[in-house]
Please model this.
Amino acid sequence: MQRWKLNNIKMIESPFSLSGKTILITGASSGIGKSIAIACADAGASIFAFGRDQERLADTLSKLVCNSDNQNHRSFAVELTDDDSISEIMKSLEEEGVRFSGFVHSAGISTTLPLRSMKPDSTTPFMKLNVDAGIHLTKWITRKKMVAENGSSVVFLSSVMSVVGESGKTIYSMTKGALLSASRSLAVELAPKKVRVNCISPGVVETPMSGKAVYSRNEVALKYVQDLHPLGLGKPEDVAYSCVYLLSDAAKWVTGTNMIVDGGYTAR
Ligand SMILES: NC(=O)c1ccc[n+]([C@@H]2O[C@H](COP(=O)([O-])OP(=O)(O)OC[C@H]3O[C@@H](n4cnc5c(N)ncnc54)[C@H](OP(=O)(O)O)[C@@H]3O)[C@@H](O)[C@H]2O)c1
Model:
């Protein structure tokens, strides 16, 4: 990932700067979430990195630059499907007086499961992490005592699977479509609080998640997936830079949208 320096391009005066903003990012220990944390810190934000794995979180933190003395990066190892653990951390942050200008829900899990193998409760763990945890944290960071004075920007990592279909992707698509639908209603409901809510829908990005996907185990299937993307597969930073924009004041009139970042996957 090519790094750029805040001062070199006068980002502090730029509407694209995240200077002075505090941003909570889930999934910050890996892939897209990690890249978003790095790009947001480069743009001047203080990062609250949420993930499960302590070591991977520590690695993320070691890669976050500090452009100013008041940039304060912190990490939290938390199981996001455990509502009580989320509440415990958020309550203590509220008591500390932490206020968030942004929240990115990048933590997510995927599966490929044909309908014949689905059981009535197959969707539960996927809904719980991909959707419910994001909504739960949105509720926390938009509380009167936690939302930044100038408002906040919420970004959910959806997927092109929210707008197109693929065999075996019913469960994953359901969760990503739910984020898309939820973001629109939240955008309307939270606008009076100066809170914007948007989704980013990536195509296939090279991360540990896509590396574990069924198509990555088979050369022919991988070539098929690569060919679906006219610009080739994405890199985590391709998504991270879009996210920096949505979190910044440059996007102050953008809410309820779905930013498709997919190397042309859905242009066909
Ligand atoms: N990669 C793609 O091709 C692609 C395409 C479209 C959309 N997306 C979406 O983009 C987001 C990021 O994907 P990615 O490729 O970066 O995935 P990834 O590399 O597998 O990272 C997933 C992250 O989610 C965290 N996580 C998983 N289960 C959790 C749990 N129960 N509690 C707390 N954290 C948990 C992981 O934490 P630990 O590492 O600590 O376990 C990790 O930080 C996901 O929402 C995904 O659906 C990805």
About this structure: The first strand starts at residue 22 and ends at 26. DSSP finds eight helices and seven strands in the chain. Helices lie at 31-42, 54-62, 83-96, 124-141, 170-190, 208-211, 219-227, 236-247. Residues 161 and 173 are 5 Å apart (CA to CA).
